[in-house]
Amino acid sequence: MARRNNRSGGGIISIVMMIAVIIGLYYLMQGLWWILGVIGPILFIVAFFLNRSVVTGWFKSIFSNFKTNPLMSVGKALLTFFAFPLVGGYLFSKAVVKNKVAEVSGQMKQKQPEYAEYEEVSETEAVVVEDDDFLDISEIEQQLEDLTVKEKKSPPTSTPKTKQANPDPNKYDNLFD
């Protein structure tokens, strides 16, 4: 007979734990929002001093898009007013990244390519090196001649009739037969 687990509190305890975790996350987010609220204005100011075009570009985009996309501009304005800590963090991080990119690109422009030193030699000044064994292929030519003589002296091997009918016989036809 199978044993039954008759604990009645198992479902209630898990629900209570889930509610406790949700409440804990709420207070954690509330604390982070408070910290960002304190730091937000400072991030705006630092972003303005790091790269003015980032902050001014954000506000220009809000006002310039009112004619073309008014809903997006109203949304950006409300986001800037109600969620200024997030916008301040975004503008700060964008300013830092733009400064870093400008710094790295400036270093890349300053770095001169290093060329290998070389000396141009005209054809009249070129020295011809004559070495007796340079590209000496007489031994290879002799071996090739020996092979061709052996092929002429050896009796022809029997080949299938389909291959004999070929007007241009290739000596490699029987390579894998």
Q: Please report the total strand number as a whole number.
A: 0
Number of helices: 6
Mean pLDDT: 79
Sheet/helix structural class: mainly alpha
Distance between the termini: 74 Å
Residues in helices, as a percent range: 55-70%
Give the low-pLDDT segments: none
Content of β-strand: under 5%
Using the CA coordinates, give the radius of gyration: 42 Å
User: What best-fitting shape do the alpha-carbon axes yield?
Assistant: elongated
Q: Helices and strands, in N-to-C order?
A: HHHHHH
User: How can the largest sheet be summarized?
Assistant: none
Structural overview:
With 177 residues, the chain is mainly alpha-helical. The chain has a domain at 40-108. It has 6 helices and no strands. It has helices at 10-50, 52-64, 70-82, 84-110, 138-153, 161-164. The model has no long low-confidence stretch (mean pLDDT 79).
Helix-strand layout with pairing:
Blueprint: H1 10-50, H2 52-64, H3 70-82, H4 84-110, H5 138-153, H6 161-164
Give a quick set of tags describing it.
177 residues, mainly alpha, 6 helices, 0% strand
Brief sketch in words of this structure:
The protein is mainly alpha-helical. 64% of the residues lie in helices and 0% in strands. The chain contains 6 helices and no strands.
